[in-house]
Structure formats: structure tokens, C-alpha cells
Amino acid sequence: MEYPTIDLAADSKPFQRQATRASVIAVMTAASIVSNYLLIGVFNVKLMDLIVFSSGFLFGPTVGASVGILTWLVYGTLNPYGFSLPILISTSLMESLYGIVGGLLGSKGTGRMGAGLTANLKYGIVGFLLTFIYDLVTNIVFGLTAGIPLTVALITGIPFAIAHEVSNAVFFFLGAPPLISAVSRLIPSGGNDG
Questions:
Q1: Which residue spans within 17-144 are E strands per DSSP?
Q2: Whole-prediction pTM value?
């Protein structure tokens, strides 16, 4: 199935282009933040990564990365579990990876990942691999920040990483095609912001 991507540069007026990009980033960031607060009591099970990935897939890597960074800047700062600048920086940068990869897959594949079970498996695998990288890097930063030996930080992080990676594999497998399809119906056809 081919999903249309929005050409944020197609508008003839620069102001209109900037307003469209800002609106897309704001709406997708808000959706991501709201989903985080709704699931705040469930550790490492979040829809945020899927929303950030879908933002990149449909609107390009720049928009996707922006949504990821802004989501963590809000959620990581206004968080009942506390605040740590090094961890905020690592989570923000690693979250942007979902948007960047989504943007590259959306633009390189001209908005296509296929349809059916094969496409769902691709999304699930991508979600799992991105989450593995995210968890590895953020657990290393946590260990360094807390003064915990890296081996201990990585081993104690395994249960949380497994919950995060498996839930994201399931969310991407089941949720990426319908989310991308639903959002793509709201936007005009064209390319993305590359």
C-alpha cells in the first residue's frame, strides 16, 4: 500500500510552508506527549515511539526528528519521576532516531513499505531494532550519570528493555499501517520535507 507524504515545500508562499511545518510538528508532538501521560504508570510501554516514527515516515526526517526531540523536552522536563539533564539529552537525541529512520523509509520508499503481513513484519522489526538501540544508549548514559558500572546498568535494565522492545515490536507491527494510513488521509499527496 502506498501512503501519500506531504510536501511541506510545495506551498508557493514561504510563510505558509513554515506555518504548515510548525502545525504538523505541534500536532504530532502533542499526540505523542498526551499518549505518554496516559500511559505514565506503565513503565517502558509507550505509543510515543510509533507516533514519532510515523511523523517522520509521512512528513520527512526533519519533522520526525523535531517531534521526537520536542516530545522528550516536554515529557522529560515535566515528569513526576524526576529530571536529569544528561538523560534528557540522550533520550531526546535517541527519540529523534525514530523520526529520522521513519523519514528515510518514507522518502526512500516513496511512502511505501508494502501491505499485509510482510509490511507489518517490517514495521515490527524496525520498531524492535530502533528500540534496542535506544535502550542500549540510554542505559549506558544512565549508568554513567548515576555512577553505576556499565555492566550493572545494562543487566539491571534488561527487564525494562525487554518490555520496551517487545511492546514496540507489537505496536509497530499492529499500529504503524493503520496510523500512517489514517494520518495520510488527512494530508495532500506529494513528497515529504526530505
A1: none
A2: 0.86
